[in-house]
């Protein structure tokens, strides 16, 4: 499984908003500058995250974006699900009930189900707040000028 650029950038966007979570609105151009991601790309990502209720937005000259919830309420798994879609290791696991005609005969399905469970549990155990705390311990990776 590979996480796409969109998924990685979504995490960086959410990290940036969590790192600067002061109650003020944060402009995309500021996030763009700090994270080295184009505003156009960020616009696509914030649209997805806003529709899902993860971000609040305010239009206008003093507008921008904010997290809709506290950073500890967002898991990495949830954010990646929005931008990546399924995080399952094989396509046959994408449906709630596996539709594969070979499901009951498949000698490897338990491997894929186990891997999917490990990935979900691991990424669900990490919050945005965890990422912010790790970054602060490392020195921030925050390039505010």
UniProtKB/TrEMBL annotation:
SUPFAM superfamilies: Winged helix' DNA-binding domain. Pfam families: Rrf2. Keywords: DNA-binding. One of its GO terms (molecular function) is DNA-binding transcription factor activity. One of its GO terms (cellular component) is cytosol. PROSITE patterns: HTH_RRF2_1 (PS01332), HTH_RRF2_2 (PS51197). It comes from the Bacteria. The keyword DNA-binding applies. The keyword DNA-binding applies. InterPro entries: TR_Rrf2-type_CS, Tscrpt_reg_Rrf2, WH-like_DNA-bd_sf, WH_DNA-bd_sf. This is Rrf2 family transcriptional regulator. It comes from Candidatus Anaerostipes excrementavium.
